[in-house]
Specification:
- It contains ten helices and no strands.
- By secondary structure, it is mostly helical.
- The protein is globular, with a radius of gyration of 21 Å.
């Protein structure tokens, strides 16, 4: 894989991310756990997602998981070949199929993103919620102090500074992946070229390396997003993503009962 991102750099990226999440979990779950802030909108039951938003998020998760699984098989064919052979799907003889699955899942992801943008802009008019503001810097300082000293976690609105950062980084990664992916698929399909010729076949600006780097960055973003969604402080947000408005649903069920 001389034409692609070095495996040791990928290892540093993944190990570093894992170490950060472990430290964060120990700090928040064991040493000085912090519950939801009383000033958090989630605590008052006003965080909600309509049916389209919930279907979009879960559909996007499925598309991304397929994209990541097929992408990892294309990046680590020799490493994953034994596991693939065990389920009767040899990677090297199904390389083109994996590329097609990868492209199809990316197209599905792109269509979901386009629908999500249209829905947020024209229907719920919620796109402004993810636009960074000066107040986010103050919130970031407050959250950092809370992490160091302990105490309540203050959130000013539905999307805090970290959710906004996630959306921005996801957008940047998706754009770079789209540009480099289109370039590779239509102009530099290295999977049709013998491995010894990959280096000479690669364009001068190294789209394969960029594609791999931002692909692993996307994995890091997804893992971190899922990790933070499972934290106790964010459980109301996760429940709202599953049920719509969790607090309202619970109140209705209690009233009926």
């Amino acid at each position: 894989m001389t034409h692609t991102l070095p495996a040791d750099l990928v290892s540093y990226l993944l190990v570093g991310t894992s170490a950060f999440l472990v430290v964060h979990w120990v700090r928040r779950a064991i040493l000085k756990p912090a519950g939801p802030s009383t000033s958090d909108p989630n605590a008052n039951g006003i965080t909600s997602f309509d049916r389209f938003q919930r279907l979009f998020h879960w559909g996007t998760l499925v598309a991304l998981l397929v994209t990541i699984a097929s992408g990892l098989a294309l990046y680590y064919p020799a490493v994953l070949e034994p596991a693939a052979m065990a389920v009767g799907f040899p990677i090297h003889t199904n390389f083109q199929l994996l590329v097609d699955i990868h492209v199809a899942s990316v197209v599905a992801f792109s269509l979901l993103i386009a629908a999500h943008i249209a829905w947020d802009v024209f229907k719920v008019k919620g796109s402004r919620l993810v636009i960074p503001r000066v107040s986010d810097l103050r919130q970031l300082a407050t959250r950092a102090e809370s992490f160091v000293r302990g105490g309540e976690i203050v959130k000013s609105e539905k999307y805090d500074v970290f959710m906004k950062s996630f959306h921005i980084l996801l957008t940047i990664s998706s754009i770079v992946l789209a540009v480099t992916g289109i370039t590779l698929y239509f102009f530099a399909p290295w999977w049709f070229v013998p491995q010894l010729s990959h280096q000479t076949f690669e364009p001068w600006w190294k789209p394969t390396i960029m594609h791999d780097f931002f692909g692993f960055a996307l994995i890091v973003l997804l893992v971190a997003h899922m990790y933070f969604a499972l934290l106790n402080v964010n459980r109301p947000l996760l429940r709202a993503m599953i049920f719509g408005n969790w607090q309202e649903r619970r109140r209705r069920n209690n009233h009926v009962g």
